[in-house]
Amino acid sequence: MFYGKRWDRDRSGHIRLVHLDTVNSTNDYAFEHTAGGSGSDTRFLLESTKNCIAVIADNQTGGHGRLGREWVSYPGGSLTASFAAAIPQEAVTKGYSNWLTVLAGVAAADSLEDMFVSCSGASQPEDTASALPGGSDRRNNSGAAIPVPASLKLKWPNDIYMDGRKLGGILIRLGTDSLDGGSDRDTSREGTAAAGRGEPMVLAVIGIGINCAVPAEKFNGFDATSLSSVMDVPAAGPSFAAFRDGLAESIAVRLSQMLSDFKSSPSETCRYLRNRAEKLDFLRAQPVTVSLPSGETFTGTAKGISADASLTVGLEDGSRRRITVGDVSAGVPQPAQHTIHTVTVNSTVNKGR
Q: Where is the region Disordered (predicted)?
């Protein structure tokens, strides 16, 4: 159920923006309006490999987190958006879709970096694809170096971190049924080759939530942060909506291109994403605590992202484990500190003298 006026805009013919006042979940909305396979939104996704739909909400009342958890957003201070796209079913069966979380994280990190650079007055380096967020290779008009004011990282499996604290999260939802564009599919537009050559396509919905201007007290003790801690973010209202929508559109543009590459050459794109993940890895070489859905908990050292997008953890005995699902936190539990109270008793020993 959603409330408020809906309106769509196309950008460059490939991105359709849907704005909602209030919605239970942007992820649910995007899924329900495209998974059926017969509506105009579904046909739009199948027209081109670059096409995606961005659903943005002013207020989300029932957001989803990973493993069935709740995602809480702050009205007037959060970006809550979901991006729908059609991907080859083969990419799912071969495991390439495991990299969609990293793909979304890279798109978000690069968009945020561009925003930081724009606010600092620095210029973009020539090779933006290889530049790391938080780098110092930025120059102002006078040629002086300007550091990006925040360090952006990706924490396996689905978190965006800034300056060591959680800034946002990502949720991937995949459809199981093949999408059918029917006879209305347009095969004349740019980028249609992969989408129009007849292979089965399934729906992928990428949910992204980012704390933009959330007051610190709203985090309720969680180790989280907001963009407003490092830059000026407009207060709630039209100015904030423009700020949020600009960020969402920037992410959508990057997702559009990266998803097109993913559809055309999934194996090559996944190799690129693994390289980016290695550079953005928040956990790499850190001691970690792993909690599995089975209830098992163990500690080790994060060794990086594997070829299948799982996390490799080195154990104390020298062996390694690959984690495909679970919770991972930096650091290891400290043993309980026991205070030993000693009592000195003065005693007299009778030596029988």
A: 123-144
pTM of the full structure:
0.80
**Structure confidence at residue 160 (pLDDT):** 96
Q: For helices 100-120 and 266-280, what crossing angle results, to 10°? A: 60
> Token pair for residue 233?
């973010």
For residues 82 and 100, the answer to whether their CB atoms sit within 8 Å is: no
Q: What pLDDT, on a 0 to 100 scale, did the predictor assign at position 70?
A: 53
Tell me the CATH number for domain 283-330.
Answer: 2.30.30.100
Pair 82, 203: CB distance under 8 Å: no
What is the rounded average pLDDT of the residues 64-78?
63
Cβ atoms of residues 208 and 83 within 8 Å? yes
How far from each other are the two terminal CA atoms of the chain, in whole angstroms? 96
Q: Give yes or no for residue 159 having a pLDDT over 80.
A: yes
Domains of the chain by residue range = 2-120+150-181+199-275, 283-330
- Tokens 């994280």 belong to residue: 105
**17 or 145, which is more confident?**
17
Give the model confidence (pLDDT) of 244-281 as tens digits.
999 999 999 999 999 999 999 999 999 999 999 999 99
Instruction: Write down the CATH superfamily of domain 2-120+150-181+199-275.
Output: Bira Bifunctional Protein; Domain 2 (3.30.930.10)
Beta-bridge partners for 71: 63
Cα separation, 214 vs 72, whole angstroms: 11
